[in-house]
Amino acid sequence: MYREESLEEISDGRVYTENDMVRADTGNCSGCRQVCCKGMDNSIVLDPSDVHRMTVCLNTTFEELMKGAVEIHIVDGIMLPNLAMNKDTDACSFLGNDNMCTIHNARPGVCRLFPLGRYWEDDDNYSYILQRNQCHKDNLSKIKVKKWINNPSDARYDKFIKDWHRYLTRIRRAVSDIRGSSGDETQIRTICMYTLKTFYLTPYGGDDDFFEQIGTRISGAIHAMGMD
User: Fold this and answer.
1) How far apart are CA 87 and CA 213, in angstroms?
2) Beta pairing, strands 141-144 & 21-25
3) 3-class DSSP assignment, residue 126
4) For all residues of the chain together, what is the average pLDDT?
5) Which of 20, 83, 175, 218 is within CB 3.0–4.6 Å of 44 for a Cys-Cys bond?
6) Per-residue pLDDT averaged across 124-148, rounded?
7) Are 113 and 149 in contact (CB under 8 A)?
8) pLDDT in the model for residue 46
9) Helix, strand, coil percentages for the chain (3-state, nearest 5)
10) Residue 29: which of 107, 121, 140 has the closest Cα?
């Protein structure tokens, strides 16, 4: 999700690498003044890796998640899934009665990063930022960025994040071009539905690794839509 604010408005004004120390450790949220997993509307956008981890963890399908835990919204011009808020509590559907995440090991990348975020310098490179006024915990501790993210598939995940970002950038540009020329909403919907079906609705099964499968799908989608 793109944001229009300046770096200074949304962060402490610094950018970090994975080997930098940053004051982001929440200490398992112990003693927090306010539960942050509420009132997030549709801001927790899910990428294919997020959905894959959730379906494996919960032994379910994307279609089942869509019955309550996940919903679809327009994000920067295209349709993408996001975590749904509970209609009664306005809290994340996976927030337990103890105010702790019930899918912590399979939580989405946005949640895994928090209170950090990604700052894209261009279509191929990003750094990390410490988001301002997002975490309500006092006295966060310093921790190395890489340790905080704690992703066991660092290199492959990093490649996926960049490939997926480039793919979405191309899709957004294509949609913008269509709206600027023919304005054909049917064509735009076809592009969006193709993306949802290819990367979210179609399971990642068999013996092949997820990162191998997603790489093949991204390359195939770019070729199929004539964006290579």
Assistant:
1) 35
2) antiparallel
3) strand
4) 88
5) 83
6) 86
7) yes
8) 97
9) 40, 20, 40
10) 140
